[in-house]
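Batch job 17 of 40 flagged for manual review because the log was empty.
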Amino acid sequence: MNYKEIISVSNKSGLYLMHKKRNDGLIIKSIVDDSTSFASSRMHTFTPLENITIYTKNEPIELYEVFKSIKNNISKNPLPSVKAKGDELRSFFEVVLPEYDDEKVYTSDIVKIIKMFSVLDSKGLISLEDKVDSEAQSETTKENKKAKAKVEKDTTETKEVAPKKAKATKKKDA
C-alpha cells in the first residue's frame, strides 16, 4: 500500500485518494464511497498518511507501523468503539504501542487513528508486509525498466552524422 496517495484533508472528514492534481488544488476521491470532489489548496491542507507520525518516548513512529501493530494485536486486543471512554481508548493504545507518549498523544488522536484504521482495513488497504520491502521492490522495478530501456537504446543502430562546419567569424576593424 502506498501511503503517499492516501491523504487526510483539513475541514473534511474521512480519507481520500489523490485522483488528479491541479494548480489550485486536488481532485480527491473518497475511500469510503468513491465520490470525487475538488479541494482547493487555498481552503484545505493536504496531509499524506506517509507523513503522519505518532509521538513515543524515544523516536516518533510512522502511522503505518501503528496500523501494523493494531492488525497484529486485533485478535487479543479488539478495536474499541470511537465513542468509548478515554481510559478504555488509552488502555487499548497502550497494548498497540506501549512506548507512546501519553502527554503528547491525546484521546482525540487515538480516536482518529481508530477511525482511519477501520476505514483502511475495511477496504483491505492494510497489509502486514513490510513497507520498506514494498518500496524497495518498486524501486528495483523502476531500475530494471531504466536498465532495459538503456540496453534497447544501445542496441539500436545509430546513424553517422557528419561533423558540423565551423562558423566563420567576421573580423572587426579597429
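Reviewer: the log was empty due to a logging misconfiguration, but the result itself is present. The beta strands are 6-9, 15-22, 25-30, 36-40, 46-48, 53-54, 61-62. Unflagging and moving on to job 18.
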